[in-house]
Design a protein that fits this description.
Elements lengths: L1 H32 L6 H19 L3 H15 L2
Helix pairs in contact: 1-2, 1-3, 2-3
Length: about 80
């Protein structure tokens, strides 16, 4: 019984990560469309992290996606 509950909890947490990735990407895209005042080097990092986040999301690696997108948001001040 405990194993079933543990598996269900893991599945639920994976779905939570999966659903939040697109929200983070939209927030980053919205900020990028407003031409934020970010150093050129940081802007390159943001764009790479945003692309990496989407690739991780599509590959089902939601924890990695959350990390990359979170780092991008920090650089953008979100």
């Amino acid at each position: 019984m405990k194993k079933i509950i543990a598996v269900m909890a893991m599945a639920a947490s994976s779905l939570a990560f999966a659903n939040s990735c697109p929200t983070h990407m939209k927030e980053i895209d919205a900020k990028l469309s407003s031409s934020p005042a970010v150093a050129a080097a940081d802007m390159e990092k943001v764009k790479k992290l945003r692309a990496d986040g989407e690739a991780f999301h599509k590959a089902g690696k939601h924890a990695e996606s959350e990390k990359a997108l979170g780092d991008a948001k920090k650089l953008l001040g979100i």
